[in-house]
Amino acid sequence: xxxxxxxxxxxxxxxxxxxxxxxxxxxxxxxxxxxxxxxxxxxxxxxxxxxxxxxxxxxxxxxxxxxxxxxxxxxxxxxxxxxxxxxxxxxxxxxxxxxxxxxxxxxxxxxxxxxxxxxxxxxxxxxxxxxxxxxxxxxxxxxxxxxxxxxxxxxxxxxxxxxxxxxxxxxxxxxxxxxxxxxx
Length: 184
Hints:
Largest sheet: 8 strands, antiparallel
Shape: elongated
Radius of gyration: 26 Å
Strand content: 35-45%
Helix content: 25-40%
Oligomer: single chain
């Protein structure tokens, strides 16, 4: 009788364990679905035809100092006075990445309205470890805490004062009939 009860306890324990979210399963899904390691990107304005181009120029100055880009004005300058006239498409400022800056370019420039953007790499984010799993049984959900590390900081990242460090993150999982899946 004792052997039967012990066997049942072991079977029930094994069944319930296989239905739990393990650290290795959570790690595997986080790395696969969230695509680690991944680049930490910056959306860089390359052309600005709005009345806010002075702000854009001020943002570019730190990149100019590091020889990552140069910029020029084009069209008529309508920014004189306290209330500048809006010049739609006729004038603006345009940045050009230097050879040093081009090596961090991830995507080609895309225009959105009167502004053109491109993405540049600032650093790399790599998965470190799972730090905890909190399961909410009644709702069939879990929150997984994990760490990533920022490494390989580029000059664009240095210009934005990025530092190598460990970053705390969380991911949510939902329990389905066939197991746990990350929600993203």
